[in-house]
Design a protein that fits this description.
The strands form eight sheets. An eight-stranded mixed sheet has the order 31-32-34-33-35-36-37-38, sandwiched between helices. A seven-stranded antiparallel sheet has the order 8-9-10-11-12-13-14, with no helix packed on it. Strands 3, 4, 5, 6 and 7 form a five-stranded antiparallel sheet that branches. Among the domains are: 118 residues, no CATH class; 97 residues; 111 residues, Alpha/Beta hydrolase fold, catalytic domain (Rossmann fold, 3-Layer(aba) Sandwich), CATH 3.40.50.1820. Helix 2 packs across helix 12 and helix 6 packs across helix 7. Helices cover 18% and strands 34% of the residues. Strand 23 and strand 24 form a beta hairpin. The chain starts with 14 loop residues before the first strand and ends with a helix. The protein has twelve helices and 38 strands. By secondary structure, it is α+β, with helices and mostly antiparallel strands. Belongs to the peptidase S9A family. It comes from Micromonospora palomenae. One of its GO terms (molecular function) is serine-type endopeptidase activity.
C-alpha cells in the first residue's frame, strides 16, 4: 500500500474582516477551529503528506539521531549547587526522557561540589522529583515550578501534560516523601515561599492566557480558600512573583513591554499589603533586588541602556545613583550577595559580568579568552557567599560551569559538558572548528554582526552550504551557543551563521528600538543583508543557503520568503508567527493586548494596520518562486497558535502551487515542541535531515 503523496487541500467557507476601510477575505480562517474534526483531519493529512514527502530521508534522520545520542553522555549529573545544608542537582539516566531532581546533605568539611563517576547517583542522595515517573502514561510533560521552601521541608512543583503552559501546582513533604492534599490547577510559572514556609504565593492567567493574578496559599488548606494578593486589570501588563535571594522579601513584578512596577511583601509577614517601590510611569522600566538596608533598582529613567540605583528598603523613595548610564553598555540585571554585587551586562555585542565589592575594593569585569562567547550567572541560591557560579559557552566550547571567587578572582572550571566521540571515533576537539565574527551592511548603512562556525579549513569560495539563523524581536539576543546536534551539520561541511539583526538586544536598547513597531521591517532587511553578505564574502552561495527561525523568528522567515525568495534554497519556520496581523487584531486571543507595545495596535491605529499588513507573511503571499519551506508547529501552543502556519502553508500552495511546502504538527505538544530529550533529538534530526537534503548533502 502506497502513501498518499498529493498535498492536502484546504477548502471551507472563507471569513471576511474589515478594518480602517480595508476588507480582507481569509479563505482559511476555519482552520482556527481547533475542535472541528475537519481541522484535525487537515492537520493529520498534512502530517501524512510530510512523512511521505520526506520518507527518503528516514535513514538520514536515524543517522543524525544516533550521532546526537552517541555524542551525548546520557547518564549525567549537573554540578551540585549549595543551599544551606544541601547540595541540589539534577541527574539524567540513559534511556530516560526526563531529569531526576535530587539533593544530598553537605558533609563536614565539604566545600567543593561533590562529583560522581559517569553521572552515577551521589552516595546518600535524596530524590526530590523524578520526571520520568511523573510523565508515565503521558505523551508530553513539562515542569513549571520547582521551588524548595527556605527551611528545606517542602517542595512546590507544577506539571503540564498538554503543552498549553497551564500547570497543576502540588506540594511535597520532603521529610516523608508524601504529597499534601494541596492542589491548585490552572497555575502559571512563578512561586515564592514565605520565610516560615507556611505560605506559598503563585500566579494564574486570565482567559487570554495573560498572567494577571498573584495568589496567597496557606499550606494545608484547600485552594478554594486562597486569597488574591494582586490582580492586574490593565491588559497590557502581566505579573510574576519571586522570593529575593536574601529571602527577606516577596517581589511582585508587574510588566508591560515598556513599563514596569514592583511591589514587595516582607517574607516574614506574608499577609501584609504589598508596598509599591515606584508607581508605574509609561515607558519607564525597572527591576528590584534586595541588598541589606536597600533595594537595588536597575532602570531606564533617562538611561537608554539602563543605570543602577538604590533606595531604602524600609521606606522606598528617591533613587540614589550607583552606576551611571553609559551609552553602548546595556545593563541587563543585578544580583546581590552579602558582600558583592554582580551586574550582567552587554557591550560590543558580547555578554559580560562586572563584580562590585561592597565597601572597599574596585569593581572589575571578569575576562574570558574567546573572541565570541556567551556568559551569565548560573544557579546561585546562597546570599552569604564569596563564590559565585557562572555558565560559559561559545560556538565551539561546550556548556561550561565555573565557580568564581569574588575576593581572589580565581575561577575554577567545575564541569564542561562532555562531548563523546562522533561517528569517526575521534574525541571532540574545539580546534577542529573555527568561529568567526563578520559584519553585513544593511540597506540604511547600519553594520549588522554575524557569528559563524564551521569545520577548520572550510573554503570561502562559495562552495560550502550554509544555515543562517535569526530571531530579532523582544530585545532577545541570539548569543553564541554550543549544540551537539549542530556538529552533524558542521561535519558534513555546512557553515552555521547567526544573524544578530535589529529587534534583538545584541547591541543595546537602541538595537531593539530600531527593529520594532514602525521600524520592524529593519529586522527583515537586516537578515536579507546578512544572507547576501554571506554569499558576497564567499561563505556560501544563494542556492546553498537555508534560513531558519522560530516563533517571532518564524515571522522573520515568512517575511524574508516574501522579501527575497531568491536568496534561499530552503526555509525552516518553527512555531512561526506568520499571521501576525490577524492575531494582533484580535484582543481575545492569548497575549494579543500585551503584544501591542511590541508590534503596535492595528485596531486603533490605521498607520500600524497598513504597516503590519505590508509585511505580515500570510497577507503577502504572492505568485513567485518560493524556496522550499518546512513549517513546524504544535497543536497546543498558546503563544503562536497552530493555525497560523497551517493557514500560511495552505495559502502558499494555492497562490504559488509550484513550490515545495511542508507542514509538520506535533499533535500533543506546545510552543517548545516535544518535551522529552529523545523526542527533541528526533525532531532536530528531522529538521536537519530536511536541511541537508535542500543543501544537497543528504
Amino acid at each position: 500500500m502506497t502513501k498518499k503523496t498529493s498535498a492536502p487541500v484546504a477548502n471551507r467557507v472563507p471569513a471576511e474582516r474589515t478594518h480602517h476601510g480595508d476588507t480582507v477575505i481569509d479563505e482559511y480562517a476555519w482552520l482556527a477551529a481547533k475542535d472541528d474534526p475537519a481541522t484535525i483531519a487537515h492537520l493529520t493529512a498534512e502530517n501524512a503528506y510530510t512523512e511521505a514527502r520526506t520518507a527518503h530521508l528516514e535513514g538520514l534522520r536515524a543517522e543524525l539521531f544516533e550521532e546526537t545520542r552517541r555524542r551525548t553522555q546520557e547518564t549525567d549529573l549537573s554540578v551540585p549547587s549549595r543551599k544551606d545544608g544541601y547540595w541540589y542537582y539534577t541527574r539524567t539516566v540513559e534511556g530516560q526522557q526526563y531529569g531526576v531532581h535530587c539533593r544530598r546533605a553537605v558533609r563536614d568539611g565539604e566545600t567543593a561540589p561533590p562529583v560522581s563517576a559517569d553521572g552515577a547517583p551521589l552516595d546518600g542522595e535524596e530524590v526530590l522529583l523524578d520526571g520520568n515517573l511523573i510523565a508515565e502514561g503521558h505523551d508530553f510533560f513539562a515542569l513549571g515550578a520547582f521551588d524548595v521552601s527556605p527551611d528545606g521541608r517542602w517542595l512546590a512543583y507544577s506539571t503540564d501534560f498538554a503543552g498549553d503552559e497551564r500547570f497543576t501546582l502540588r506540594i511535597k513533604d520532603l521529610s516523608t516523601g508524601e504529597l499534601l492534599a494541596d492542589e491548585v490547577p490552572g497555575t502559571f510559572y512563578g512561586t515564592a515561599w514565605s520565610a516560615d514556609a507556611s505560605v506559598l504565593f503563585y500566579v494564574t492567567v486570565d482567559e487570554a492566557w495573560r498572567p494577571n493574578r498573584v495568589w496567597r496559599h496557606a499550606v494545608g488548606t484547600p485552594s478554594s480558600e486562597d486569597v488574591v494578593v494582586h490582580q492586574e486589570d490593565d491588559e497590557r501588563f502581566w505579573v510574576g512573583v519571586d522570593l529575593t535571594r536574601s529571602e527577606r522579601f516577596v517581589l511582585i513584578d508587574i510588566h508591560s513591554k515598556v513599563t514596569s512596577e514592583v511591589r514587595v511583601i516582607p517574607a516574614g509577614n506574608p499577609t501584609g499589603e504589598p508596598a509599591v517601590i515606584a508607581p508605574r510611569r509609561q515607558g519607564i522600566e525597572y527591576t528590584v533586588e534586595h541588598h541589606g538596608h536597600r533595594f537595588l533598582i536597575l532602570h531606564n529613567d533617562g538611561a537608554e541602556d539602563f543605570a543602577l540605583a538604590y533606595t531604602s528598603a524600609d521606606a522606598p523613595g528617591d533613587w540614589v545613583p550607583l552606576i551611571e548610564h553609559s551609552p553602548g553598555t546595556r545593563l541587563e540585571s543585578v544580583d546581590a550577595f552579602s558582600d558583592h554585587l554582580v551586574v550582567s551586562l552587554r557591550s560590543n555585542g558580547l555578554t559580560g559580568l562586572r563584580v562590585i565589592p561592597v565597601g572597599d575594593g574596585d569593581a572589575h569585569d571578569i575576562d574570558f579568552p574567546e573572541p565570541i562567547y556567551s556568559v551569565g550567572l548560573d544557579a546561585n541560591p546562597e546570599y552569604r557567599t564569596r563564590e559565585i557560579r557562572l555558565r560559559y559557552t561559545s560556538l565551539v566550547t561546550p556548556d561550561s560551569v565555573y565557580d568564581y571567587d569574588l575576593v581572589t578572582r580565581q575561577m575554577v572550571l567545575r564541569r564542561r559538558k562532555p562531548v563523546r566521540p562522533g561517528p569517526d571515533g575521534r574525541p571532540y576537539d574545539p580546534a577542529d572548528y573555527e568561529q568567526h565574527r563578520d559584519w553585513a551592511l544593511a540597506d540604511d548603512g547600519t553594520r549588522v554582526p554575524i557569528s559563524l562556525v564551521c569545520r577548520a579549513g572550510t573554503p570561502k569560495d562559495g562552495s560550502a552550504p550554509c544555515v543562517i539563523y535569526g530571531y530579532g524581536s523582544y530585545e532577545a539576543s541570539m548569543d553564541p551557543w554550543f549544540s551537539i546536534a549542530r556538529l552533524s551539520l558542521l561535519d558534513r561541511g555546512v557553515v552555521f551563521a547567526v544573524a544578530h539583526i535589529r529587534g534583538g538586544g545584541e547591541l543595546g536598547r537602541r538595537w531593539y528600538d530600531e527593529g520594532k513597531l514602525l521600524a520592524k521591517k529593519n529586522t527583515f532587511t537586516d537578515f536579507v543583508a546578512c544572507a547576501r553578505h554571506l554569499v558576497k564574502a564567499g561563505w556560501t552561495a544563494g542556492d546553498r543557503l537555508v534560513a531558519r527561525g522560530a516563533s517571532a523568528g518564524g515571522l522573520l522567515m515568512g517575511a524574508v520568503a516574501n522579501l527575497a525568495p531568491d536568496a534561499f534554497a530552503g526555509i525552516v519556520a518553527q512555531v512561526p508567527f506568520v499571521d501576525a496581523l490577524t492575531s494582533i487584531l484580535d484582543p481575545s486571543l492569548p497575549l494579543t493586548v500585551t503584544e501591542w507595545e511590541e508590534w503596535g495596535n492595528p485596531l486603533a491605529d490605521p498607520e500600524v494596520y497598513a504597516y503590519m499588513k505590508s509585511y505580515t507573511p500570510y497577507e503577502n503571499v504572492a505568485a513567485v518562486d518560493y524556496p522550499a519551506i518546512l513549517a513546524v508547529t504544535s497543536l497546543n501552543d498558546t503563544r503562536v497558535l497552530y493555525h497560523e502556519p497551517a493557514k500560511w502553508i495552505a495559502r502558499l500552495r494555492a497562490i504559488a502551487p509550484q513550490g515545495d511546502y511542508l507542514l509538520k504538527t506535533e499533535m500533543g505538544a506546545g510552543h517548545g515542541g516535544p518535551s522529552g530529550r529523545y523526542d527533541s533529538w528526533r525532531e532536530e534530526a528531522f529538521i536537519n535531515a530536511w536541511i541537508l537534503d535542500k543543501l544537497g548533502r543528504a
